[in-house]
Every structure is written in C-alpha cells, then in structure tokens.
Amino acid sequence: MHIGAARNGALAARSCTASLSWGNQTLVVAESAAEVDLDAFGTDFGDDVPVAAFQIKKADSECCMDYEVYSLQKPPRLLRIITGGEFFSASDLDLEGTVEIVTNDAAAVDGFDKFTLGEMDSPPTIVLRLATTHLQDASAQCQPYFDRQIHSIRAAIDPHDLENFRKSDGTLTGGPTGSSPEQLHQLRAVKIKVLEIVWAYLYSGREQQAWRSLAAMWPPADFNRVRAALLKSRASGIQRVVDSTPIEPMRHKKKHAQIFDAVNRPEPGSTLELIPPEPILLQRPPVSQPQPELLMELVVDRAGKVSRAEPVGKTQWADPELIDAAYSWKFIPAFKDGRAVASRMRIAVAPRQ
Questions:
Q1: Where in the chain is CATH 3.30.2420?
Q2: 199-230: per-residue pLDDT in tens?
Q3: Which end of the chain is more exposed for a tag (fewer CB within 10 A), N or C?
Q4: CATH topology of domain 259-349
Q5: pTM over 0.85
Q6: Which helix (H) or strand (E) element contains residue 182?
Q7: Phi, psi (5° rounding) for residue 85?
C-alpha cells in the first residue's frame, strides 16, 4: 500500500494505492483513491480460503467505503465487493470461531428525513457473514449487542422532550406552536434517537418490536409515512447485496474457539509450532509525560483484531487511553497448520512508539 500526493492542477491531493503481488505478477486493488485501509490479511471467513480485505473510499465527497475481499490463493482474485457502509471491520471478537464483518447501513440512512449521517450517534449496525462469494445477514444473532444499544439510547431521551416530539407533525417542518429554534433543535435530537431505537430493532430481526416502539414514540398522524420510509430506505441499502434471508437468532451459545499460545515459543520444528501474529497497524495515543515501557498481553482473534488487552508483569497501572487504543490495533493473525487461529501474545510498548 502507498499513500502519497497526486497533482491536481496547481494543487496536490492525497492519493492512495494498493496492490497484491506474487513474484512478477501484480493485481491492482486501488488506484488514486482518497482512502485505503487493509482491514484483514491471511484470515478466512470459514471456508478455508485465505483472504485480504480492503476498505476503499474512492473520493472524499463520498459518505461510504467499498469493502473488497480478495482470495490469496495464486493467482489472487476478487471474491466480493460490499458497498454502502461508513466502515467495515472483520473480526471474531467473541472468540466463537466465526469471522464476521461489522458495518453500518450508512448509505441507506444518510439523508433520511433530511438528516445527515454526521448527526447520528448510532446509525444502524449490520453483521455480515461471507463464505467465498455468498453474503448473509447475521445481525439477528447479535441481539444482545442491539439491546445494550437500545437501552443506552432510551436512557438519553428526556420524557418531557419525547412528549413534545409526539405533539409535533413528525417531519418537524413545523414543531409545536411557538417552538423556538433551540426547541426545534432539541426535537430533532429526540427524533434521531427514536429512529435509532427503531433501526436497532428492525436491523436485529425484530420488525414487530420496531413498529411497536415507533407507535409508542412517534406522532400518531405521521406513523404510516415514516414506517413506509423506513422500509424503503432499508431496502435500498446493504440489504440489496445480501444473497439470502437473514440468519435466525441462535438458540444455543457457540463454543469458544481455542486460543493458541504465542507467548512461549516451542522449539523450531516442533509439531506444535505456531507462526505468531505480525503487526499491520499499531498506533498509540500521545503521552503528556514520560512513562516506563509497558508489557501488554493481547488476545488476537483469527481476523487479526485485538479481543482482549491488559498489562502484565510488574506494571500495576496502565494508561487507559493506551488500553483503549490497543483494541484498534491490527495484525496478520497467528497461523497453525496453514490456517489463521486466535492467539495470545505479548508486546512491549515504549513511551514513544
């Protein structure tokens, strides 16, 4: 991958490129893009096909990324492009042995009822599973996550403001009689939160609960209009590229995946030999004062994402911002017998790194 400047008339603009190479063969992934990010490398989505997954934004003016997944079998080839999300992240953060792609349906909700994406705290989340080229919506299997999101949003709504919103026309082209600009701003904030609750139910496979929540919180006279608009916007988003009906909620919790030890290295040539994770992106927050070197133990899932991070050794305290930053780090995952696996590793973090 390369990030540099490209001439644009008398000015220079950022230009990103990416390619996959074997020997003297090269496959161009992105050229003259506004943003390129290597999200995963070497993992598989459950079908034993190792892949590289890139997030690509073609222009700064676009709201969304393209997620391009390439097979790493020789010669590499494009398996799938997923569009419409503000971000994409492949992970097995619950360490249940299944790599899933988390995104949001940004393209579907940007502009909904004249709201911009930047005004929303919780655009609708989608959890996808990809097997070779077959894409499924697995969001219904993550209902506990959506429930926590719904609880948090509900707690932030003032009952008095909600009642005022229910007395409006719903579109907020005209709020309750005599509303000041500040009151209209507050009504817009409540309206966004109501929409985010309804989206959380709708996208997690609970349509009837979505409509019950909408009926309880939305102006009654505007219910049918907004319900139809919600269904239309959802159908125009990532659901367009999903290949089959959504996966049903799980009845039983999955078993946890085995976590291999990449801390204590076996002797070379051992049948238990593990290829440890290799860093793709490690970034720490700036430090305001000198700090000693910190030894951290990480659990890196089979998509190369950090599932757990904690200090080890003699350190009794660690900068919480550093611990938080560790959850954004990316690795090529550990390999055993040619397959990506979850592993436990240790890394020393210097005061300046």
A1: 259-349
A2: 999 999 999 999 999 999 999 999 999 999 99
A3: C
A4: TolA/TonB C-terminal domain (3.30.2420)
A5: yes
A6: helix 181-203
A7: -100, 150
